[in-house]
Design a protein that fits this description.
Layout lengths: L1 H10 L10 H25 L4 H19 L6 H15 L3 H15 L3 H14 L1 H5 L4 H21 L5 H19 E4 L2 E7 L3 H18 L9 E5 L3 E7 H14 L2 E2 L2 E2 L6 H5 L3 E9 L5 E9 L2 E9 L3 E7 L2 H13 L5 E7 L2 E9 H5 L3 H16 L5 H13 L1 H4 L6 E4 L5 E7 L2 H14 L7 E4 L7 E5 L1 H13 L2 H21 L1 H15 L10 E6 L2 E16 L5 E11 L2 E12 L4 E7 L7 H17 L4 E4 L5 E5 L1 H7 L9
Antiparallel strand pairs: 1-2, 2-4, 3-4, 5-6, 7-8, 8-9, 9-10, 10-12, 11-12, 13-14, 14-16, 15-16, 17-18, 18-19, 19-20, 20-21, 21-23, 22-23
């Protein structure tokens, strides 16, 4: 509590909307600090009491309040009974409590209105005593940020290892995001709240502030905190701030064998900026060339061993699995699909991550250049046969393992007339390499292509969806650098294969490619514009966005589009969920106006419609339902409009 009070002034710029006044920020900060103080007070008061005893203590305290509020007309046993009824009401047993309150009013001879006046005052001003804000489910949301705060403070005072503190914080924050957060292309959002939610959010902000003191200047970032309905708070990093934060989360988010444990974390990979350097290239006593290779990102680094013998081998081993997981994550961020294994060494379990020539040659340019430096030094020193390692250099210098040529893809038409583009293989490495090639091209699994790995001797496949070929065609014209080169090669190759398959196949493939190439190159993030709707001009500004495929509980595929935008000076997170409905399997997106938005749900629906029209050129349908909710409906033409944007995940 004392530490947060010390930091309160420094945290105010992060509290409230970007355009909030100093007075608004001050008021919100006081409110959040007050909720934290309440939690501390109730936790200390309850110390040493079990649930039953603490309930009685609350009832006793509330009975004194009831007696005072009623001017002594409800006292003694009746005050205790009313206090217990209020506790039942706060806990959700409303009908039962209402019956108790009605009976008590009749027995005491006090009007129901007067009794309910006392009840409503207590529920409003003394809610935490009635509902028990010191119960476990409330306290739990304070525990993690409090531990983070203590740990980061110790690290700043050299009482805890700095790198370990950063990694542990990142792991805990990413875990919170997996449950109550959202990660977009340039957006990191954590929802904190419920009872005393402001206090928990303030703790989170305090820990983020100390985190920034530990981070190097290039990784420091800022956040904003927005208040939602029901005492919930959104802690949000946008744009460049999100990109910097994601660099730390990329190396610290929970993973297994280099793969993240939550799909939400996949966005971190794109934000990563790994650095690779080489040290101590040497000839060992056993005649092998060895070197130290260091990969770093997010103020964390791992030193790997590199050996040149029958192949290039990079490895890291330790009895500490968390360090090996970090090593695997860093390799993943460097573009390498590494293998993590465990072996017994006497009484200890030793964990090992290893990658060899072909997988290393598929990595990012920084890694390939560093490995090539080791090979050249070995040649210059006469430690290896230049002719033997010449092929290694070719692969490293051009990434030829994935780029030297395309395997034989099947291109044809299915019965419905749709284009089928698929590659089959019983070799897992071949499937993995093709998958990685498409990722390097900028395609996303599940959106642009699907993968099935070989099992039990049966072939696996990589299948390019229509959306994938369209996206590749678009990248061949509007992309940049390596992505454009790969996309151009792929599109030319598929058209060649289609031509070989026959005129109908070629015509269909050409149709898809032309459609992809002619899409307009627009950027969604940073979009600003004005649109007229219902005789009124609206100003629209997009801050951030994301689009992700999900599954409903029934297994239906859904596309969830989230857009953080400012419309007429009001900023909020808008969400449209697309699915396929009806006999014709039509694409329909649904969204709902929020009643807690400025101006109410009608104004929110108007701003939502203005956003959709500004981005797609088409006005959505607004329906006021019988239950009072307002639904916004978007159709295929709106989805096509969203798909025009260059940074869209669904072209």
């Amino acid at each position: 509590m004392k530490k947060v009070e010390e930091l309160a002034g420094a945290l105010k710029p992060w509290i409230g909307r970007v355009d909030a006044s100093d007075a608004e920020r001050e008021g919100l900060a006081r409110r959040m600090l007050g909720e934290l103080a309440l939690l501390v007070h109730f936790a200390e008061t309850r110390r040493g009491m079990d649930g039953g005893r603490w309930r009685e203590e609350r009832a006793t305290r509330l009975s004194k309040v009831v007696a005072a509020l009623s001017g002594g007309r409800i006292a003694g046993e009746y005050a205790e009974r009313l206090a217990r009824a209020i506790i039942y009401y706060a806990e959700g047993y409303k009908k039962y409590a209402e019956g108790l309150i009605k009976s008590l009013a009749e027995e005491v001879g006090v009007s129901r209105e007067e009794v309910w006046g006392v009840v409503e005052f207590v529920l409003s001003d003394m809610y935490c005593l009635a509902r028990d804000c010191a119960r476990d489910e409330v306290v739990r949301k304070f525990v993690e940020p409090a531990l983070e705060l203590v740990m980061l403070d110790k690290a700043l005072n050299n009482e805890f290892d700095k790198e370990e503190a950063l990694l542990l914080f990142g792991e805990m924050y990413a875990t919170a995001l997996a449950g109550d957060g959202h990660v977009g292309r340039r957006l990191v959002e954590l929802t904190v709240g419920g009872e005393l939610g402001g206090g928990a959010a303030l703790l989170r902000l305090a820990s983020l502030h100390l985190l920034n003191k530990l981070l190097s200047d290039e990784l420091k970032f800022g956040v904003q905190t927005y208040i939602k309905e029901g005492r919930y708070y959104n802690i949000v990093a946008y744009g460049e701030n999100a990109a910097r934060f994601m660099r730390l989360l990329a190396v610290s988010a929970p993973s297994s064998g280099g793969g993240y444990l939550s799909d939400k974390f996949d966005q971190f990979v794109e934000a990563a900026k790994v650095e690779v350097r080489v040290d101590n290239i040497r000839l060992t006593e056993s005649g092998y060339v060895a070197a130290d290779l260091i990969i770093s990102e997010g103020d964390a680094e791992i030193k790997y061993n590199v050996y040149l013998w029958e192949k290039i081998s990079l490895e890291f081993l330790s009895t500490d699995r968390s360090r090996v997981e970090l090593a695997a994550r860093l390799l993943t961020l460097a573009g390498v699909d590494a293998e993590l294994k465990m072996k017994e060494d006497g009484k200890r379990d030793v964990w090992r991550v290893i990658a060899t020539t072909n997988k290393l040659a598929a990595g990012r340019e920084e890694l390939r250049k560093a490995l090539a430096k080791i090979v050249r030094k070995a040649i210059e020193s006469g430690w290896v046969d230049a002719r033997k390692v010449e092929g290694w250099l070719e692969k490293l210098e051009s990434g030829r393992v994935l780029r030297e040529g395309w395997p034989k893809y099947y291109v044809g038409l299915v019965r419905s007339g749709a284009l089928m583009v698929r590659y089959h293989s019983t070799d897992p490495d071949s499937i993995a390499w093709e998958t990685q090639r498409f990722r390097e091209m900028g395609l996303e699994e599940g959106v642009h292509f699907t993968v099935k790995m070989p099992e039990g001797g049966k072939a696996g496949y990589v299948r390019i969806l229509r959306e994938g070929l369209e996206r590749a065609a678009w990248l061949s014209v509007h992309g940049e650098g390596e992505r454009q080169r790969l996309a151009t090669e792929f599109v030319e190759y598929i058209l060649q294969r289609a031509k070989e398959a026959g005129e109908d196949v070629y015509r269909k493939a050409l149709e898809v490619v032309k459609e992809g190439k002619t899409r307009r190159a627009l950027m969604l993030e940073g979009f600003e514009g004005m649109v007229e709707l219902g005789g009124k001009t609206h100003v629209v500004k997009v801050v951030g966005w994301s689009a992700k495929l999900e599954k409903s509980q029934s297994g239906k595929k859904l596309l969830r589009i989230r857009i953080t935008a400012e419309v007429d000076g009001v900023q909020r997170n808008y969400e449209i969920t697309y699915g396929r409905y009806g006999k014709d399997n039509a694409a329909v997106g649904y969204a709902y106006a929020r009643s807690d938005a400025p101006g109410g749900k009608e104004a929110d629906a108007e701003r939502f419609a203005a956003l959709v029209k500004a981005l797609t050129g088409k006005e959505p349908r607004i329906i006021e339902r019988s239950n009072g909710t307002i639904r916004i409906e978007c159709y295929r033409e709106h989805l096509d409009g969203f798909m025009r944007y260059a940074d869209s995940q669904t072209p």
